[in-house]
């Protein structure tokens, strides 16, 4: 009996050693410089610190900012692991107490989760002002330089280490990984822009740019009771899709130039300086313009200050989002993932080993999103 007991204990010990060896390294995709191939490498999984969570990534989508970094339009510290639109499952938690997600639900291994693009101390001044994404201690997934002590920080890897103070939310298994991945950038950013826009009910809303953010915004405005949702883009095919997501009118950018409009809320997701200027010119008295898309260096925009003052116009800018926006994004997807053809927006054709082909496809074909199956 004693021999049998020790034999079982020894076999269990060997099993743990074998498991630990499997967990010591994982596969990552490393970006070093623009217009150069991303390399697939092995990375050590470091020991978790207090409050950290190890997630096995399930699915990652390539955001426009990832593509801009890959092509050199946007500069990030390198080497780095790109990708911040991610969904995965918890495999380990390092905490002396039970951790809860942003909605108050306890977290445990096996939970399927999404998380915000950032980690920021909730006691920082910026966090208390409702803009944690600008905190001095900000950590951004998919945007950090990789070092031996700071790795597994992006979605193009088999695992991500969630840092302390990262807003995390449990997700239902019923939500497709393709849809779940876009929550923590695309949908949350739209939620933030609509928060800045204020009350949407019975408002006339114009949306410039019918890309991923623009079509999601059409759906969110519709669900919020907007009287009219006008989608504006140079691409007629994308305008058709905007109609499927709740736009009551679709207009090409050239057609819009010949219109006189009185818009309550005008939002630009395109980043085009002419579109941003058009948002201001289209506003009714007391109207609000929200700019989201112009996050890369470009020409300055000339505006008519007298018109803005006399018409009581407001211009607001948004970069990323806060925890309330993130929670609103999850809520929207949970309630509407089957009501709109969101899955059709993601081209699901690549895995981590073919990441360079995925980026090339994104550049050449310009789909709404390219999805990467991680595990």
Q: Specify the structural class.
A: alpha/beta
Number of strands: 17
Overall pLDDT score: 93
CATH superfamily label of the largest domain = Medium-chain alcohol dehydrogenases, catalytic domain
Kindly estimate the percentage of residues that lie in beta strands according to DSSP.
15-25%
How many domain modules?
A: 2
Question: Can you describe what's shown?
Answer:
The chain has 375 residues and is an alpha/beta fold. The chain folds into two domains: 188 residues, Quinone Oxidoreductase, Chain A, domain 1 (Alpha-Beta Complex); 130 residues, Rossmann fold (3-Layer(aba) Sandwich), CATH 3.40.50.720. Helices cover 32% and strands 25% of the residues. The strands form four sheets. Strands 3, 4, 5, 8, 9, 16 and 17 form a seven-stranded mixed beta sheet that branches.
SSE layout and pairing:
Layout: H1 2-23, E1 25-30, E2 39-44, E3 52-61, H2 64-71, E4 85-94, E5 112-115, E6 118-119, H3 125-128, E7 139-140, E8 159-162, E9 168-170, H4 177-181, H5 183-197, E10 204-208, H6 212-223, E11 228-233, H7 236-244, E12 249-252, H8 253-256, E13 263-268, H9 273-281, E14 283-291, H10 305-310, E15 314-317, H11 323-336, E16 346-351, H12 355-365, E17 369-373
Parallel strand pairs: 10-11, 10-13, 11-12, 13-14, 14-15, 16-17
Antiparallel strand pairs: 1-2, 3-4, 3-8, 3-17, 4-5, 5-9, 6-7
Briefly say what this structure is:
This protein has helices spanning 2-23, 64-71, 125-128, 177-181, 183-197, 212-223, 236-244, 253-256, 273-281, 305-310, 323-336, 355-365; strands at 25-30, 39-44, 52-61, 85-94, 112-115, 118-119, 139-140, 159-162, 168-170, 204-208, 228-233, 249-252, 263-268, 283-291, 314-317, 346-351, 369-373. The chain has 375 residues and is α/β, with parallel strands linked by helices. The radius of gyration is 22 Å and the shape is globular.
């Amino acid at each position: 009996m004693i021999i049998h007991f020790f034999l079982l204990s020894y076999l269990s010990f060997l099993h743990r050693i074998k498991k630990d060896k499997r967990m010591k390294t994982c596969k990552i995709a490393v970006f070093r410089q623009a217009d150069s191939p991303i390399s697939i490498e092995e990375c050590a999984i470091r020991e978790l610190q207090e409050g950290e969570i190890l997630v096995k990534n399930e699915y990652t989508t390539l955001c426009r900012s990832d593509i801009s970094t890959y092509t050199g339009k946007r500069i990030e510290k390198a080497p780095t692991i790109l990708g911040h639109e991610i969904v995965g499952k918890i495999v380990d938690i390092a905490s002396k107490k039970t951790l809860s997600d942003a909605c108050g639900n306890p977290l445990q291994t096996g939970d399927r989760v999404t998380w915000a693009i950032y980690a920021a101390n909730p006691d920082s001044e910026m966090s208390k002002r409702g803009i944690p994404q600008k905190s001095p201690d900000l950590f951004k997934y998919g945007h950090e330089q990789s070092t031996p002590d700071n790795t597994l920080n992006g979605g193009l890897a088999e695992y991500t280490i969630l840092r302390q103070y990262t807003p995390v939310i449990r997700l239902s298994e019923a939500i497709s990984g393709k849809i779940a991945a876009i929550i923590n950038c695309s949908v949350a950013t739209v939620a933030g822009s609509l928060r800045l826009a204020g009350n949407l009910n019975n408002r006339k809303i114009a949306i410039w740019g019918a890309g991923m953010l623009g079509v999601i915004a059409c759906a969110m405005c519709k669900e919020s009771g907007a009287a009219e949702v006008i989608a504006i883009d140079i691409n007629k095919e994308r305008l058709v899709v905007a109609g499927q997501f709740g736009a009551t009118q679709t207009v090409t950018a050239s057609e819009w130039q010949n219109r006189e409009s009185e818009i309550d809320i005008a939002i630009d997701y395109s980043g085009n300086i002419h579109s941003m200027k058009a948002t201001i010119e289209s506003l009714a008295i007391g109207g609000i313009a929200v700019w989201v898309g112009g996050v890369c260096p470009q020409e300055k925009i000339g505006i008519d200050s007298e018109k803005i003052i006399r018409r009581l116009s407001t211009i607001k800018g948004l970069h990323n989002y806060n925890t309330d926006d993130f929670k609103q994004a999850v809520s929207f997807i949970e309630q509407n993932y089957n009501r709109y053809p969101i899955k059709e927006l993601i081209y699901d054709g690549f895995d981590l080993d073919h990441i360079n082909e995925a980026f090339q496809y994104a550049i050449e074909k310009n789909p709404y999103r390219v999805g990467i199956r991680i595990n």
